[in-house]
Write a structure and sequence with these properties.
It is a single chain. By secondary structure, the protein is mainly α. The longest helix is centred in the first third of the chain and has 31 residues. The N and C termini lie far apart (36 Å).
């Protein structure tokens, strides 16, 4: 559902699964905790995407409601794994939706560092981080974010990064590379 941008369905399915509960015994309890965490992060992400759509439609009350719901899911996820990079990255996305760009940048950078420490590339976080650097008129930083992972990116990932990368190159006066 997430790939199809059916965010309301994502939230509904996550909520139904969370309400059913999880095993509290043995090894299943650990898996249940991880599954609940993942669902809460997905639901929070979907709420934030929906909040942006609501803002674009001019429905600011709905935007606030969805951000609050996303914050609630994130708070619950944070209770399970407070230092997980997904928690920090999602906190940055929520701050971005609230217009707190510098605070969002701090969280997204912190999440990026945590992913890097685990030898993981979170492509969505990288893209949002690079876009935010451009929005804050920091094209050199945007360029650095993308160049750090460019060689590891598949053709499909490069396609999603290339527009941001080209803009960063142009804005850093690296016109030849941008072409």
């Amino acid at each position: 559902y997430k790939a199809d941008r059916r965010n309301e369905d994502v939230v509904n399915i996550c909520e139904q699964r969370l309400q059913r509960g999880f095993s509290q015994k043995g090894i299943r309890a650990g898996r249940s905790k991880a599954e609940a965490f993942r669902l809460m992060i997905l639901a929070s992400q979907a709420c934030v995407v929906q909040s942006v759509d609501a803002a674009d439609a001019g429905d600011l009350d709905r935007k606030e409601e969805l951000i609050a719901k996303g914050q609630e899911y994130l708070a619950n996820a944070s209770g399970e794994f407070p230092n997980h990079p997904d928690v920090v990255g999602q906190s940055g996305r929520i701050k971005l939706a609230l217009g707190q760009e510098r605070a969002a940048l701090d969280d997204l950078r912190q999440a990026d560092e945590a992913y890097r420490a685990k030898n993981v590339i979170n492509w969505e976080n990288k893209l949002i981080l690079a876009q935010l650097h451009l929005r804050l008129n920091e094209p050199g930083a945007a360029k650095d974010v993308i160049e750090e992972v460019w060689e590891q990116a598949s053709a499909r990932r490069r396609a999603s990064l290339s527009i941001v990368y080209a803009e960063a190159l142009l804005r850093t006066n690296d016109v030849e590379s941008a072409l």
